[in-house]
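Reopening this one. Same input as before:
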Amino acid sequence: MPAIDFVETGSGPTLLFIPGSFSTHAAWRPVQKWLAPAYRIVGTSLCGYGATSETRTREDFGMQHELRIIEHVARSIGGPVHLVGHSFGGTVALAAALANSIDVASLAIFEANPLSLIRDRSRETHYQDVLTLSHEFRDAVDAGKTDAAAIIIDFWGGRDTFASMPEVVRNYCRQTAPTNVLDWQTDFSFEASLHDYASLDIPVLLVRGALANPAMVAMTDMLQQALPHVHGAVVEDAGHFLIATHARECAALVTRFLTTVRAAPEPAMLG
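Same output, byte for byte:
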């Protein structure tokens, strides 16, 4: 089995945190510090980040590579898990729930970006914009441009977001830019329909920032309409990196959501 990043602390219901691109499990620490010590907190990193091996190539980049990580961690810790994901990590969380290969109790996803959703006629402009941007980014990485990562960071976070980040963060983004190229390929290849999402019979917390870009707004709106047990929220004055900039607000949303989930009555037994 390839190496997989893994950290664990606390006890109680299990929250498995999935970071997005350019990130490790440490991306969730600002949120986790505001959570009550009533949960078992587990963190991992996706392919090519942190201590997790990269198993993908530009010819073999399917979502199954990421799902193997989530499935391995979930089975190792045992029991039902509440998946908490940001950005590409939110998309991976959705994919894990749809795969139905582990016991997912709920999803809490922040600025998830399942790109295939906006490939319909009414949102084709958004899709083409994102596709063009991903190609521009790939070409910049292949050309060895030092700050190619800024193309992606500023697309999701707004102009000059990359420049405003601490140097240690920018350096990690520079180092992992080739991995992020694969993330885009993985995301574009993930084909889940609105009908698929409508079949998810679990509670979902769906969060975006009020300053989210138009593509993110479109994807979130479509998920909001499709998911049958969805709790939607918009964090004011927040953009794509809200789990860092608005960690306390994000933690409060997770806490309220999990309190609601745990208070819900169990389904009646038949027989």
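So the earlier flakiness isn't reproducible anymore. For the record, The domain at 7-115+193-263 is CATH 3.40.50.1820 (Rossmann fold).
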